[in-house]
Design the sequence.
């Protein structure tokens, strides 16, 4: 009985201190949701997959060339767009590497990781994709700071905690649902491609994304640490594997 009391007390303390989070689910105008993969555009030429499964939405792109000839991406004329502001994939600048190692970052942009050894490197403005191969990019963070301002009335539901499914205490989950026009978050990704290296037959993929629903719930339900159980064992951590979604931790 004493052990049960202490365990229940720990649950109350953890619940009071546990941060809340916004779980943001995305949709796009020309992509389909593929379970386990993300938001996918698939045609006879290519397969373009967007995976956002991370904190604040690091946008991971996988581009597969399905043709029997090369495919080219002009990064100079490709952009990530928030509102009317565009951030280009490629800039005419060089990285100066001095010593040690580095990780670059900035508002919305996630730079690469590399060794610093006294060399100067410069990204290629055109991506070359051989037949039946792929390239990957993860240059931008969708929502780098703050939290979404949610309008409207949420749908309130209750669920058993994933970390402790045997507990009788239910969690409150508030779900806000939005159309593209009403969404508190919209952004675009614009790519310029060609099957010709001189881009005489270029084409464009312009994808409009929006937050279609936002759940507000304890962060531990999205990604959490193992929790001590009644038998002194620990539950498995809750992994975050929703490639069409990302989460924002709310301040306590």
Sequence:
């Amino acid at each position: 009985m004493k052990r049960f009391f202490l365990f229940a007390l720990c649950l109350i303390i953890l619940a009071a201190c546990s941060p809340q989070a916004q779980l943001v689910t995305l949709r796009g105008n020309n992509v389909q949701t593929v379970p386990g993969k993300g938001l996918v555009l698939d045609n006879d030429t290519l397969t373009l997959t967007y995976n956002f499964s991370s904190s604040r939405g690091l946008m991971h792109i996988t581009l597969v060339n399905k043709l029997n000839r090369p495919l080219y991406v002009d990064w100079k004329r490709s952009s990530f767009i928030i509102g009317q502001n565009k951030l280009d994939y490629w800039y005419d600048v060089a990285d100066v590497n001095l010593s040690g190692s580095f990780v670059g970052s900035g508002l919305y942009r996630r730079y690469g990781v590399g060794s610093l050894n006294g060399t100067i490197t410069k990204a290629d403005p055109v991506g070359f994709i051989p037949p039946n191969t792929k390239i990957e990019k993860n240059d931008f963070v969708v929502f780098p700071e703050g939290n979404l301002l949610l309008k409207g009335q949420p749908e309130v539901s209750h669920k058993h905690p994933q970390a402790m499914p045997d507990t009788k205490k239910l969690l409150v989950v508030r779900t806000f649902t939005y159309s593209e026009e009403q969404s508190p978050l919209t952004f675009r990704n614009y790519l310029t491609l060609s099957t010709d290296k001189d881009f005489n037959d270029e084409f464009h993929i312009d994808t409009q994304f929006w937050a279609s629903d936002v759940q507000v719930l304890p962060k531990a339900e999205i990604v959490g640490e193992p929790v001590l159980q009644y038998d002194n064992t620990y539950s498995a951590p809750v992994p975050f594997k929703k490639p069409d979604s990302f989460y924002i931790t709310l301040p306590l």
